[in-house]
Amino acid sequence: MILVCALMLSMAVHAQWRVGVTAGADYNTYTMDKQYESDWQMQGRWGATVGITGQYDVTNWLGVRADLNWTQKNYRHYRDRLPIEHKYFNDYLQLPVMASLSMGGEKLRGFVNLGVYGGYWLSSHREGYDMNIFTGKIYSFSEKVEFDSDRDQRWDCGFVGGVGLEYRFAKHWAAQVEARYYYSTTSVQKQYTRVKDYRYNNTIAIQAGVNYQF
Amino acid sequence: MTSIMKHKILSIIGVGLLLLTLGACREQSDTLVSYGHQDQLAFGEAETSFAGKFKVLWNGLNQNYALWDYERELGLDWDAIYDQYLPQFEALDKLEEVTDAQLSKLLKEVVSPLHDGHMVVKVKNHKTGEYISIVPAALRNSERPEFSAVRSTPPTLKYYAKKANGEIELDEDGTPIYLEYSTASDDLLEKFTDTEKSGQEWINDSITALQKLTTPTVEQVDMLKLLTDLNKELEKVQDTKEGIALYNELANRYAYLEIPGFDPIDENFNDNGLKIKYALLKGNIAYLYFSDFALSYYLNEEFTKQGFPNASEATLAHIKKMEEVWNSWFNTIQELHKTGKLGGVIIDVRNNGGGSMNDYRYVLGSLIPSGGFEIGQARYRRGTGRLEYSPLMPSYSPTMDEEHAIITEPIVVLANSNSVSMAEITSLSTKYIDNATLIGKRTWGGLCGLIGNEFFSYNYTGHIGEEGKTPVYVYLPLVAQFTREGQLLEGVGVTPDIEVDLDVKQLRSTGKDTQLDRALQFIRNGN
């Protein structure tokens, strides 16, 4: 409500478009209840993120920003008591829509992005090693994970927030660095049995980009 | 402070508060307990409640069963089973008395739709104190028309081993090349009861002789009483674990009488006993029958130590004789192959209940190249979720490491609806060996592997509870076994290349075996 009020107050003052590109790295962690599986260990993994951005500046301190990005949400799990490690590579197409609040001077400004995002799980791949208990052999694998329509929730949405700095190095051009956090509120796993089992991605992205201001 | 600055600060605070509420946007998973071990938290309710037992059974399978995707393909809705049967088990809790039959009926309805071929479900009826045991695959197979007759008719070579019938090769002395040996506890007991002038017969003869004495000595009177008492106690001995234990107790108690053939039986034969038959049938066709995949206990030193710890001289003698039969089969094949005289090989796994995977190296694995034989792909459960699995991993059966000739002559595996587990892995292998053919009937339908160790629960599969200790116990597969083509055959079995019915009446009356005859015809005529 506060955001909306702020927007309405200052809309008439300033209006400007800018577009840009971003790229960076992200670190994703996977939240699930391990239940009694005490030797399962979950660990986050790094991935990549690239995207295009568009921003409509309502005032000189407030804009509405939308990105379209490809973001990996990777993670790893492994067993303490058996030679098993699975590394997952998950590709998402995301559309974060954020309010962008900025402050500072003409050249260098700090900004905060806050909003929501929607996404779609494009593909999944896993690699690592597993153990065939019967033969005692360790098996290395690298394979595409086929989606299961009962199990896998491919639509994703949640909240997104970021902080960053922008440096205007030419009249129309600016560079940005941003630390961004995607907090998914959609379970990666559908509730396909009567036993509820929710799993979520949490993704921190460190990204840089340039934008052109019209 | 300007009004714009105020707006900025208020905006940031507002969104910050919004972020604080994000935690509430994620839902909590249900809490699960492990059913791997005897544990009050997991099994407490099940001790005194039928609904509690059902919940353990349902949840335990939900978290551990390895074939949920397969069951889904086959149309089973496990959640619907919960909704349908929980109220019925709750209704049992309201009854004063619940018979074993009532509980058994409901349990059968719950687990019979599951297609695993090894699963054993044991649930204690706390009202009667009895365990109800359900084997879904046995229920399924019992509906097959030939099943019960076949099950009670194990393969026999009586007809084929007779020289007069002309079905068997003869050695240099004109003796049929036929060997058999058994360490099955029923046969070991039979040796005591049926061997001439030994064991039971010696006791009976001695009693008769002593009774005929008109003026027996004091020692003879004592002997008569001892033997009569022993005879009465021997009547209680049956072919069960308890029966063998009783027999052994008597053998030890009366050892000082030095009754010939009345020797203790190694109780490890209860589990690791084996029947084996080797015959060289006409046309130099080497036939092998063995009742279980337990050959490793007789052919591999390490396995022998595990299967027969502290083996006595008598036990070692049994093991040696078993080894001799297998050696005869294997060496004959090798020698005949090298001289170009081998007609073919028949491996008879009919009524074979399965057993150790290591045995593969002594059967089909002794006829094909070393280095293991890929039978398909294995997949394990990798989490509590119903559809969480490992990758498909190549699944190899061990083949003979020692140097041996690769057999290129026809190999026939004989199988039937009572060929289970490793017998089915052997049957399946014929599909991938050019010179091998499967003849008989579709097998049992239980190819997924299990592990005997109740405490090996790292894979979420293997066992629910502990047998005889927890009110619910399930022995279930550790792994899903796929064919090379990626098919699961659980609950279906391996289909023969040549389907042949067993004429049970004929086999019982004349000893002629229609399935074996077809195998011989196939090898001799090539079709």
CATH class of chain A: Mainly Beta
Distance between the termini of chain A: 29 Å
- Counting DSSP E segments of at least 2 residues, the number of strands of chain A comes to 10
Largest sheet of chain B: 7 strands, mixed
By CATH's scheme, which homologous superfamily of the domain at 147-184 and 273-446 and 486-525 in chain B applies?
2-enoyl-CoA Hydratase, Chain A, domain 1
Termini Cα gap of chain B: 100 Å
- In percent terms, what proportion of residues of chain A is strand? over 45%
Continuous helix count of chain A? 1
Low-confidence parts of chain B, pLDDT < 50 over ≥5 residues? none
Structure description:
The complex is a heterodimer of chains A (about 210) and B (about 525). In chain A, strand 8 and strand 9 (about 175-185) form a beta hairpin. Chain A has about 210 residues and is mainly beta. Chain A has one helix and ten strands. In chain B, strand 11 and strand 12 (about 470-475) form a beta hairpin. Among the domains of chain B are: about 145-185 and about 275-445 and about 485-525, Alpha-Beta Complex (2-enoyl-CoA Hydratase, Chain A, domain 1); about 190-255, no CATH class. Chain B is globular, with a radius of gyration of 29 Å. Chain B has helices spanning about 5-20, 40-50, 50-65, 70-75, 80-95, 100-110, 135-140, 145-150, 185-195, 200-210, 220-235, 240-255, 270, 295-300, 300-305, 315-340, 420-430, 505-510, 515-525, and strands at about 120-125, 130-135, 180, 275-280, 285-290, 345-350, 375-380, 395, 410-415, 435-440, 465, 470-475, 480-485, 500. In chain B, the strands form three sheets. Chain B has a seven-stranded mixed sheet with strand order 3-4-5-6-9-10-14, with helices on both faces. Classes of the chains: A mainly beta (about 210), B alpha/beta (about 525). At the A-B interface, helix 1, strand 5, strand 6, strand 7 and strand 8 of A face helix 1, helix 5 and strand 8 of B.
